[in-house]
Amino acid sequence: MNQIKLSIRQEEIIKLVKQNGPITSEALAQKLKVTRAALRPDLAILTMTGILEARPKVGYIYSKKPTYSLIYDYIRNIKVIDVMSEPVIVNENTLVYDAIVHLFLNDVGTLFIQNNGYLVGAVSRKDFLKIAMGGTDMHKVPVGVIMTRMPNIVFVEKEDAVYLAAQRIMEHEVDSLPVIERVFENSKENFKIVGKVSKTNITRLFVKLGENN
Amino acid sequence: MNQIKLSIRQEEIIKLVKQNGPITSEALAQKLKVTRAALRPDLAILTMTGILEARPKVGYIYSKKPTYSLIYDYIRNIKVIDVMSEPVIVNENTLVYDAIVHLFLNDVGTLFIQNNGYLVGAVSRKDFLKIAMGGTDMHKVPVGVIMTRMPNIVFVEKEDAVYLAAQRIMEHEVDSLPVIERVFENSKENFKIVGKVSKTNITRLFVKLGENN
Predict the structure, then answer these.
(1) What range(s) does the CBS domain occupy (chains A, B) (predicted)?
(2) Of A118, B5, B84, B105, which cross-links B195 as Cys (Cβ 3.0–4.6 Å)?
(3) Measured between CA atoms, how close is B26 to chain A, in angstroms?
(4) Do B129 and A129 touch (CB under 8 A)?
(5) Superfamily of domain B76-209
(6) At what angle do helices B125-134 and A125-134 cross, to 10 degrees?
(7) Which chain B residue has its CA at the smallest distance from A97's CA?
(8) For residues B148 and A9, which has the higher predicted lDDT (pLDDT)?
(9) Does domain A79-210 have CATH number 3.10.580.10?
(10) What is the pLDDT of residues B178-199, one digit of tens each?
């Protein structure tokens, strides 16, 4: 990762403003034993990057919300392939009970369902719980009966932005999206399941973003 | 939010580098019809902020990983209180069936359990599903029997960093944390449930961070 390359004096200015802000450029110059003119370029850089904020007639304060456009840019550039994890896939004739066992053994919240190697549906803890409440015999019903079926599955592709995946997760109120690869066969488009992105992946990414380098 | 305040010429430089990078300062000066000396302060600012990267003997390139320390700072400064949502709380003698109904009606993944107004436990979709698989009569067993009980509940407080909440969610492999307030009574510490932070809140925050202002 790139670190912003501040000079020692700029670091000192930030420290002084954190401790004493709001503080005027006169007061800063005095504390650093330099002229105001000598500070001007440093203060220009620190305000331009959004690290400090200049309040007219008040002085400089430390801004806790720096360089928003950079964060925006940074986040938009992380791709699905950088955070996705292994999907857990079962066939659509798997019995509900066996599917739930799969869910627990793999410690995931959503199973993706395939038929002939292609995505046909998805089923979540919520779907299973609904079935359990209804008193359905889980040893008799195949997962294909209760799953959400294509084309009602929202998905992403490997080169999409994680940001897009997060947006779709929130918008469609799901926990997890399959990551797919498009396969054209007999002029029909099919989707191969190659990964998944869930709220867990996004939370893990958030922790990584906040880590001390 | 603060926007980084770039001059029109700096914006033009970024655009040129995005399109033509790697590009030397000579080539940039030519395209902008100015001298290299005139560009020097702008290039200094753009590399210092991490927007551009200067590669010796190659030229300037657009950096997709800018100012990591700023992102770090920014993320660490968002507090639980800025993102938390309403907790869904039931009493520990609520029947499992009724608790699951609560879960669905409120569309949440975790219920927090209180007794005399204080946190005593938590129960998730996963816990409910386990019970359903076992064939337990959900109309007879109270939620207090199956919940995870204090002191095994991980929580956060309103003034904690969301980053800490995300860390705890990942570390303890839970979907949601209660946000608590400490109450001292008869020299005993109790916890009042005042909110919750879940993977959904973190994902929503991530979407917000990536939004175009």
Answers:
(1) 147-213
(2) B84
(3) 24
(4) yes
(5) CBS-domain (3.10.580.10)
(6) 40
(7) B133
(8) B148
(9) yes
(10) 999 999 988 899 999 999 999 9
**B70-101 pLDDT per residue, tens:** 667 778 889 999 999 999 999 999 999 999 99
CA distance A150 to chain B (A): 23
Query: Nearest by CB to A75, which of B49, B200, B210?
Result: B210
Domain boundaries defined on chain A: 8-66, 79-210
Of the partner residues B100, B107, B170, the one whose CB lies closest to the CB of residue A207 = B170
B8-66 and B76-209 have identical folds: no
- Does the beta carbon of B159 lie under 8 angstroms from any beta carbon of chain A? no
Residue B206: both structure tokens together: 């991530």
> pLDDT for A167-202, tens place per residue?
999 999 999 999 999 999 888 999 999 999 999 999
A53 vs B100: CB contact, 8 Å cut-off? no
Cβ–Cβ < 8 Å for A29, A9: no
Q: Tokens representing A174?
A: 């799901």
A189 Cα distance to chain centroid: 28
B103, B128 contact by CB (below 8 A): yes
Number of H helices, E strands in chain A: 10, 9
Chain A / chain B CB contacts < 8 angstroms: 194
Architecture of domain B8-66: Orthogonal Bundle (1.10)
Nearest chain A residue (CA) to B171 = A204
Given an 8 Å threshold on Cβ–Cβ distance, is B133 in contact with A97?
A: yes
CA distances (Å), origin B178, targets A125, A199, B54, B136: 21, 18, 47, 27
Residues 6 or more apart from B99 whose CB is under 8 A from it? Answer: B90, B111, B123, B128, B143
- Beta strands B52-55 and B59-62, pairing class: antiparallel
Residues of chain A positioned with their CB less than 8 A from the CB of B75 = 206, 209-210
Judged by CB atoms closer than 8 Å, whether chains meet at B163 and A206 is answered as: yes
The position carrying tokens 């929130």 is: A170
